[in-house]
Amino acid sequence: MNPSPQPHLADSHDMIRVYGARENNLKNVSVEIPKRRLTVFTGVSGSGKSSLVFGTIAAESQRMINETYSAFIQGFMPTLARPDVDVLDGLTTAITVSQERMGADPRSTLGTATDANAMLRILFSRLGDPYIGSPQAFSFNVASVSGAGAVTVEKAGRTVKERRSFNLVGGMCPRCEGRGAVSDFDLSALYDDTKSLNDGALTIPGYSMEGWHGRIFRGCGFFDPDKPIKRFTKRELNDLLYKEATKIKVEGINLTYLGLIPAIQKSFLSKDREAMQPHIRAFVDRAITFTTCPECEGTRLTEGARSSKIAGKSIADACAMQISDLADWVRDLDEPSVGPLLENLQRTLDSFVEIGLGYLSLERPAGTLSGGEAQRTKLIRHLGSSLTDVTYVFDEPTIGLHPHDIARMNNLLYALRDKGNTVLVVEHKPETILIADHVVDLGPGAGSGGGTICFEGTVEELRASDTVTGRHLDDRAGLKSDVRTANGALEIRGANANNLRDVDVDIPLGVLTVVTGVAGSGKSSLIHGSFAKSGDVVSIDQGAIKGSRRSNPATYSGLLEPIRKAFAKENGVKPALFSANSEGACPACKGAGVIYTDLGIMAGMSTVCEQCEGKRFDASVLDYTFGGRDISEVLGMSVAQAHEFFGAGESKILAAHKILGHLVDVGLGYLTIGQPLTTLSGGERQRLKLATHLGDKGGVYVLDEPTTGLHLADVENLLSLLDRIVDAGKTVIVIEHHQAVMAHADWIIDLGPGAGHDGGTVVFEGTPTELVADGSTLTAEHLAAYVGG
């Protein structure tokens, strides 16, 4: 009998080994992860899952790939510091598919963010009738340009001048410049015409007369800055509002003058509204009205681009179609001359349908996609990839998915694994945990109470383990035996935003209502589009918290304001001294707590500031105390400790105590109040946002998927919090897919039956018990299976 051949040495590297990881809250974590398998990382929110998977494994893989590029190219790339880990062995190329929202450029659409639009443009340039030009003629990001003039050329040793002309045909609508909407300015919101510029007439954020704007307005010479604006001549007003960029000299310095309206268009309107800071967004909403461009009817394209058609459809018609319908239309095109192109386009569109995004259209602005939709859109380009033996890293890929769609996502994760890839998934939903080949559970708690490996093994072994995840894996919320009675109703009549079909529905007041349905059925359109903008409504959406490493829970929640004032009053000094972003900052590190050293072509490094020892404040500021603590000691407290500290005795501050109470209520008692926002997990950020709105005076709370980023154990705490809000006399409306929240509701509104144009109608209204008994909708089937389990 022949001895079995020895395995090849190259096949022995079948593990990703991590030894001594200390990123964020990780406590010297060591773990071995099998390659070419599906590994799910679980644990309560804030236990260190993202720190291990994204902050250590994926970050080091990305850093090492960047180092393979030339020094010249690395100069244009972000410099990534090496993660705080002793050994990382067996890494493969990591591709992260995160929940980050897609580009907020107003010209970016779902079609331009993927390859679909590029392929459609080539298709129309080849087959479109009449022929109007190259693929650029169908692009709303390319303007038409023409020109003529004399050019100097060398011919036979002589220099001669020749007349040349050029003509570039682009598809950009000249009226709206490819945005699909035109802006109209309310001039009364830009300035107070009874005042002069020097008296502070301008009401535009950032346009004060103390800074550069004031210097330019005073020295430009186009108008008198001491004259009230209403007394300006026609020419002076035109110069103030509309003058294009003009070079001027002020006090010997070369500057550029630009009229108010082109300046606003350049600075504010070039950004997506959702990406703006709150005060800028409020100004834009007040001063500018957006209406559909009358010339291109919102299609962003020139008349020529819209006139060229294939099988009776223009490229604007194709982009406006639901992707599932567009896939069928492309399938019916029989043109051997562009066979490979049609095949590629077909595959891309089918991937959208397969991944559960067939209800979208290619003209959908990329900035309006939810986190879950953006993540699945990014996944599309990897599905057809011929790469193997890479590591795919997912951050809660089931976010925004109905239980009906989760099975589809699971199949995609399997497909990536079966091509020979390592798939790492950070996840809370039991449906995805159950399909794992290997599970790594972090915990046992969150923040400083987490950061250790509690369990490694199979799902069956996890079930038998005595970890928080193991104990809650088979948790099933039961249906309520008795539900609250409504004390009125919010009426929605004739709702037809997006895919809604003249929906009439009554939302009961004084109870917990859950609005559910498959992804794309019209839930957000119904709730956010109908009444979420009225004054009595507190709307908490899925938008990401924007904050730098200088922001922390204290600054974001408004907690720092009463604390600074109390310190200032106690010590008889200015409140600005107690801000690390203002006068109190350590002069060496400018209040950052760390010194960043740029090492040229190598990765930069950060070291704790030696002067303030990471406390971020000037030493003289730390001499001032309140309740026996200096400001750095206060910012080093956990939320729970600070809640106790500011709740009684000499250190009592009612305003601070109230805000801290809200943070404790949402389960963030373990967070340090001075911890940078950039170190918070997705679930922690979601709950921080919820806490900041708990003190708002609205009578109706609208929450958009509040279970995002929450562990099974944390969902129970969220439900009890929602109960407390309702019992306090408020109305709570939750847009949600989690069956535990559905089962806990007093009233359910189910939209469907499908997504896109197959949805947009109310398919059920009633109690959870009635929904399960009815059994006619997809939600009913999955809820029945859940409570039955």
From TrEMBL:
GO biological process: DNA repair
Cell compartment(s), UniProt: Cytoplasm
GO cellular component: cytoplasm
Location, primary (coarse class): cytoplasm
Keywords: ATP-binding, Cytoplasm, DNA damage, DNA excision, DNA repair, DNA-binding, Excision nuclease, Nucleotide-binding, Repeat
All residue ranges annotated as the ABC transporter domain in the record: 483-778
Gene3D superfamilies: ABC transporter ATPase domain-like, ABC transporter ATPase like domain, P-loop containing nucleotide triphosphate hydrolases
A Pfam cross-reference name: ABC_tran
A molecular-function term among this protein's GO annotations: ATP binding
Similarity comment: Belongs to the ABC transporter superfamily. UvrA family.
Name of this protein: UvrABC system protein A
Organism (species): Gordonia asplenii
Lineage, highest ranks first: Bacteria, Bacillati, Actinomycetota, Actinomycetes, Mycobacteriales
